[in-house]
Amino acid sequence: MVKYKRILLKLSGESLMGTKSFGIDEQRLSEYAEQIKEAQALGVQISIVIGGGNIFRGISGSAVGFDRVKGDSMGMLATVINGLALSSALEQVGCKTKVLTAIRMEPIGEFYSKQKAVDYMEQGYIAILTAGTGNPYFTTDTGSSLRGIEIEADAMFKGTRVDGVYTADPEKDPTATKYDEITFAEVYKQNLKIMDLTATTMCMENNLPIVVFDMDTKGNLKKVLSGENIGTLVKN
C-alpha cells in the first residue's frame, strides 16, 4: 500500500541532460520513463511538471541581453519540448499520457485546466503539465507548486540529483548533514534553497508537503512512494 493517491512530480530540465552538456540524454529519459511507469503501477495518479533549463533558461538569457519576458517565453517553450520528449518515452514503455500546456498551442498539447488534468489522471493517463504558469517571472518550481495545489495532490515529489535536504550544499560542503524531515518554518529560518521563495511559500500556505529525493538512482521513485526512508519530507 502507498500513502499517496495523487502526486505532482517535479523534474528539472538539467536532469534530462544526463551525461551531456546540453539537450536531452536519451538514456536518462528512458530511465525516468521506467521509474514513472513503476510508480503508476502502484496505483498512484501522477502529474508531472518539468523544467526547461537543459534548453533555455529565461533569467540566464536576460543576463546576456535577452528581454526578460521574451526569454521567459523561450523557457516556457523549452518545457514543452521536454514534456513532449517525456510523453514519447512514457508511451514507448506502455503508459498513456496527455500533454497539457499553460499557453494555447494546439495540436501540440491541450490547453491546461484543473478539471482536464484530474479527469485524465483518473482515467489512467499521466498528465504532463508544461509551459510553467504561462506567465513570465515565474519559475517552473512555482508552476509545480501551483499545479500541485490546483489538482489537490497529496504531495509534491521533487526529483533532484541529491538525496534530500541538507544543512548546506553537500556538493560544496562535505560536513553537510541530511534531514529526514524538516518544517517549512525551519527551511525559512535556515535559508535552505529547496525551491524559490514563491514556490515554497505557496506550498506552506496551502499545506502541500514536498518530498525531495534522488530521482537519478533507478528505483527511487517507487521506493519513496512505498514509504522507504529515503529523501526528505518538508511539511508544516
State the main characteristics.
9-stranded mixed sheet, alpha/beta, two-stranded antiparallel ribbon, single chain, Carbamate kinase, 236 residues, 8 helices
What secondary-structure arrangement, pairings included, does this model have?
Layout: E1 6-11, H1 26-41, E2 45-50, H2 58-63, H3 68-92, E3 97-101, E4 110-111, H4 114-122, E5 126-130, H5 140-150, E6 155-160, E7 165-166, E8 178-179, E9 181-183, H6 184-189, H7 197-205, E10 210-214, H8 220-225, E11 232-235
Parallel strand pairs: 1-2, 1-6, 2-5, 3-4, 3-5, 6-10, 9-11
Antiparallel strand pairs: 7-8, 10-11
Helix pairs in contact: 1-3, 5-7
Describe the structure.
This protein is of the alpha/beta class and 236 residues long. It has a single domain, classed as Acetylglutamate kinase-like (Carbamate kinase). The protein is built from 8 helices and 11 strands. The chain has helices at 26-41, 58-63, 68-92, 114-122, 140-150, 184-189, 197-205, 220-225, and strands at 6-11, 45-50, 97-101, 110-111, 126-130, 155-160, 165-166, 178-179, 181-183, 210-214, 232-235. Helix 5 (140-150) runs parallel beside helix 7. The radius of gyration is 17 Å and the shape is globular. The two termini are 24 Å apart. The model has no long low-confidence stretch (mean pLDDT 94).
Number of strands: 11
Q: How far is the N terminus from the C terminus?
A: 24 Å
Task: Pick out the low-confidence regions.
Answer: none
What is the correct CATH architecture? 3-Layer(aba) Sandwich
- CATH homologous superfamily? Acetylglutamate kinase-like
The chain-level mean pLDDT equals 94
Secondary structure category = alpha/beta
Task: Please report the first level of CATH classification, the CATH class.
Answer: Alpha Beta
CATH topology: the name is Carbamate kinase
| Shape assignment | globular
Q: Sheet bearing the most strands, described?
A: 9 strands, mixed
Q: Please give the order of strands in the largest beta sheet.
A: 4-3-5-2-1-6-10-11-9
Question: How many structural domains does the protein architecture include?
Answer: 1
Reading the helices and strands in chain order gives EHEHHEEHEHEEEEHHEHE
Range of helix content? 25-40%
Radius of gyration of CA atoms, rounded to a whole number: 17 Å
Specify the number of helices: 8
Beta-strand percent range: 15-25%
